[in-house]
Design goal:
GO molecular function: phosphopantetheine binding
Strand order of the largest sheet: 1-2-3-4-5
CATH topology: Rossmann fold
Oligomer: single chain
Protein name: AMP-dependent synthetase/ligase domain-containing protein
Number of strands: 5
CATH architecture: 3-Layer(aba) Sandwich
Largest sheet: 5 strands, mixed
InterPro entries: AMP-dep_synth/lig_dom (IPR000873)
Organism: Streptomyces silvensis
Radius of gyration: 14 Å
Helix content: 25-40%
Pfam families: AMP-binding
Order of helices and strands: HHEHEHEEE
Strand content: 15-25%
């Protein structure tokens, strides 16, 4: 998405693209380490798999955004426990808003809840129900 490309580039960062082929947890972990990735945007399903198999794979990442589906609270808890100092952000939005119209940041267990909330609207965004 344009978000994944422009946000890092317009803020002095770099974009790292995974190599072609199957992306498994060990490959993702190696990419994070080798490229010193500090911010990451992943699909909720991939976030859940990494949290179940090797939550420490996100070590060194300051902020990981997960979206595109429901983000399981247990997955967030596992990642926060394995990676002190990390912030997990639930990014929610309809297809028409690309990936995110609202976000809910979580940096400690008290931020999570029984169900991860969809959060508050992004800047300059309004939500209507």
């Amino acid at each position: 998405s344009t978000y994944e490309l422009w946000v890092p580039l317009l803020n002095g960062g770099a974009v790292v693209v995974a190599p072609p082929g199957r992306l498994d947890v060990s490959t993702l972990s190696r990419l994070i380490t080798d490229h010193r990735i500090t911010g990451l945007l992943v699909a909720a399903g991939l976030f859940k798999v990494v949290a179940e198999e090797a939550p420490e794979a996100f070590t060194g990442v300051r902020e990981v955004w997960a979206g595109g589906d429901v983000v399981p609270p247990a997955a967030v808890e596992r990642v926060i426990a394995a990676c002190p100092g990390i912030k997990v952000v639930d990014a929610y939005g309809p297809t028409e808003a690309t990936m995110a119209a609202s976000v809910h940041p979580m940096a400690e267990p008290g931020d999570i809840g029984a169900v991860v909330p969809i959060g508050r609207p992004l800047d300059n965004t309004r939500l209507y129900v």
